[in-house]
Write a structure and sequence with these properties.
This protein is mainly beta. It has 2 helices and 8 strands; from the N terminus they run ββββααββββ. The chain is globular.
Length: 144
């Protein structure tokens, strides 16, 4: 995973992969259906990332903001710095990059992690993290 231009975490499981959704269309009144996503930005997408590891202190602090500013806290809208772009690189068994997902306006909705037993280490074992995001693009890389 790439966050703020640097690799910050690796995960062994990511699901479900984003898929393009059909447009919801219009109501009988001719108006579009009401937005139900965060801050009225439309229906968000969600993915779960499990069995991950990060050594990046800044990323760990951003992820832990869900406890202070996430939707479940009832503090209203999310902070602008809380929603950030992420890139997920998918590799095959040989370690070759195959697919890249660019996610826009990501925020963490669930998070469970275990800190490193070594107090001097920044390592965090992420058991589960659920991300919400507003938009995404996929880059399919050609085989060489």
């Amino acid at each position: 995973m790439i966050w703020r231009g640097r690799p910050v975490a690796g995960f062994t499981e990511i699901f479900p992969f984003p898929e393009k959704k059909k447009q919801a269309g219009y109501l009988r009144s001719g108006c579009p259906p009401p937005a139900i996503g965060p801050e009225g930005q439309g229906t968000p997408f969600f993915i779960s990332l499990d069995k991950g590891k990060s050594f990046d202190l800044g990323f760990g602090q951003w992820v832990s903001m869900v406890r202070s500013y996430g939707p479940a806290t009832g503090k209203g809208s999310l902070l602008p710095e809380y929603k950030t772009p992420l890139t997920i690189n998918m590799y095959d068994e040989d370690g070759e990059l195959k697919v890249v997902y660019h996610l826009s306006h990501c925020w963490v909705t669930e998070y469970r992690a275990v800190p490193s037993p070594d107090a001097s280490s920044y390592e965090i074992a992420i058991e589960h993290m659920k991300l919400g995001f507003d938009r995404w693009e996929q880059d399919l890389l050609k085989d060489t």
